[in-house]
Amino acid sequence: MFTYTVRRILSLIPVLFGMTLVVFAIIHAIPGNPAQVILGQRATAEAIATLTRELGLDRPWYIQYFDYIGQLFQGDLGTSLRTRGPINVEIWPYLAATFELTLVAMIIAVIVGVNAGIISAWFSKSWFDYVAMVLALVGVSMPIFWLGLMEQWAFSIELGWLPTTGRENVRDPISAITNLYLIDTLLQGRFDQFWVVVQHLILPSLALATIPMAIIARMTRATMLEVMRSDYVRTARAKGLRMFWVVYKHSLKNAIIPVLTVIGLQTGLLLGGAILTETIFGWPGIGRYLYDAIAYRDYPVIQSGILLIAAIFVLINLIVDLLYVFVDPRIKYNK
Amino acid sequence: MINKKALGGKKTLMSKKSIKLLLIFLLALSMFLAGCGGKTTKETGGKKEPATSGGSAKDTLVYGRGGDSTSLDPITTTEGEAFKVTENIFETLLEYGEQDTTLHPGLAKEWKVSDDGLTYTFKLQEGVKFHDGTDFNADAVVFNFDRWMNGNEDKFPYYTMFGGYKADEGHVIKEVKAVDPYTVEFVLKRPQAPFLKNLAMSPFGIASPTAVKKFGDDFRKNPVGTGPFKFVEWKQNDTITLEKNPDYWQKGLPKLNKVVFRVIPENTARLNALANGEIDVMDGLNNSDEATVKGNDKLQVIERPSMNVGYLGLTTTRKPFDNKLVRQAINHAVNKKDIIKAFYGGKALAAKNPMPPSIEGYNDSIKDYDYDLEKAKALLKEAGYEKGFEIDLWAMPVARPYMPEAQKVAEVIQADLAKINVKAKIQSVDWATYLQKATKGEFDMFMLGWTGDNGDPDNFLYTLLDKDSIGSNNYSQYSNDELHDVLIAAQTETEQAKRNELYKKAQEIIHDDAPWVPLVHSTPLLAAAKDVADYLPHPTGSEALTKVYFK
């Protein structure tokens, strides 16, 4: 188990290395000069030329690349061209904001999705099954943009229950410690603010949860249906075990592995930032950070941001693989 | 199938159970939501009881906008989003009028210009302190100008308004010296007509020398000025918080206790946040949403005076627009009235000159090319393009106050041009590339615009259409020596009446040569809660919220 983990982590290195190369190649292939964007509409040609030189963008690409890799090895993610600040420091609040939103969204998606899938399989071809699966289809195909604005209209404007946008009540700001506001407010004993944070999380996380929720529900239903057809389930029923335990304990355990994989993949995807959700709900997350960086040709931020997201994605998948062992003792990672 | 058979006998029982389960689940969900609901109304209460937050009276203004600032040191940037904030932290030697670009005392209480237009003497306000407690005086002014003129276009881009940097030939400032603690003298190498207007621009806010030295490159994140509000906190891409400067030199001001600038990128979401009381003022209201705001008795629409131009550029170095007759023909073929009605909610002026009428020197005697397809066809025939031609029409990928919906406007223009047999193919590309291509003159026909910096005609005519500006902002690559002579003469003429005459002449030349189809001077809209009072938007796009209060 331990050696397996170590081996998997080591195998990350070539993957990430490849990522740097791909990202680097792509952003240098797209047109548009950062110097032009930095200096704006009012720039003179000489100024652009000077800045291009100062930024080192006139050097051959491989020199720029090796410079960048050299920096990375020293743990330096570079300096943002837009804000002129160190990316190591600046990226953290964005990651934290995205992490918090993803966590809540995935909790909702897993609880609702897995249960809906189980119940649909349990009572397959019942009205619940049909309604749930139609909803799941709607969930997968619903444009987030529209859904988000509708949520705001219904729960904020009409009902007045929840705030439309943002992470906090800006009239009573939260002092950031970890930038995970759920934790920060608790650390400071501000339970009132904790509630405000929860309220701010509901609408965006619901919007963000729809797609994973739908995918998880469909996946759970499919695997559960298969498992529930197997002989041991029939035996369990024959022995007089209550249906509830047959489903939730004996069947689920065997059906959950592919669902876990999907959950892992979806979590990884959401952690990469959900630009639409973040835009509509004014959420200062990593998706918008990268989107702005691309619009601004902020090369260092694009490179380091994507690299970081890729690393997180791979790590989450590793965690999922390790989780299999706990769910299914038959799986062993030896050697 | 097996499954079904096994369950067969107990099917009814199971359904009952499932319904129970479902009910419990729904109950739990609704309790959860209701629980949140109950809390919200108490906590934020924006809708029901707006005065609850922050103690007794409402004194925190939340300003919602589309994008974050990238720097809070105003000299380091050209971005409007930065100035919206820094205008509240920093002050300039001279200030613009509340809603125009006339000149008024700022940190300088009076000023004198020598007869030759080369020496400017400023008497400074006494007893003004920076937010860090240090004194504002003549040395501070000298320090700031020294800092700026020793920079370059990357570090301090707007300083080019003074013709370049210390070592440059074009730099107009010979020296800045402190005559006594409260008198500063500027000596110029040659007269610069818009000199005073430049001094009032947001980027030239006077910063605390002590803080600049202390923070170095990080001053952009720790701004210290003399303005009505002090910087408190910046949560990137989220909020910038300012609080009242209790020692502000203008007694009784500012009226607000706190100002929070909040980023909500999506226009509709921002309007939702306003309607829900989460923000008090929103920037960038869509013209199409104006009716919604007017229909809501808790909200109001605020108009920003116009100082911009949106135009259709015709690249004069490319065929067939190298022919003046063709350019004039296009001018006759575009129906500006319809565009304004459809996309600006009627809230824009059809443009006939490259600069807006709010600016001194505007030539109102020019008669616009009327919308006349027959004239357009005749001109095309005369130019030898009787059968028309095909071109690319480039539409901006971003929304700007002067061009909120570029793609749709492009479609209207496309339809207009089709009537005179000009087939335009609409093209677009991301904004960075768009500007780069426009600078190089790679577009046939393109949409762009400009918002004035200092309210001077030079900032429109010379900046956008002089041959010196080819390679920067003269995207139509228009070059006319006669125009150049007039514009250069106007730059050094210090007598305003004579200057205005020169600019009127310049507009005639441009009108005849038609390097653009000037489209609109738009009126950018803001929306605010009804109880926001004395919010006076400035034509430059950034204003200090010194006098704003809640009714």
From TrEMBL, chain A:
InterPro entries for this protein: BPD_transp_1_N, MetI-like, MetI-like_sf
GO cellular component terms, semicolon-separated: plasma membrane
Keyword Membrane in annotation: yes
Membrane topology: Multi-pass membrane protein
Stated family: Belongs to the binding-protein-dependent transport system permease family.
The name this protein goes by in its record: ABC transporter permease
Subcellular location: Cell membrane
Primary site of residence: membrane
Keywords: Cell membrane, Membrane, Transmembrane, Transmembrane helix, Transport
Pfam families associated with the record: BPD_transp_1, BPD_transp_1_N
Coiled coil regions in record: none
PANTHER family: DIPEPTIDE TRANSPORT SYSTEM PERMEASE PROTEIN DPPB-RELATED
GO biological process: transmembrane transport
Domain ABC transmembrane type-1 intervals: 95-324
Stretches that traverse the bilayer: 12-30, 101-123, 130-149, 194-216, 255-281, 301-327
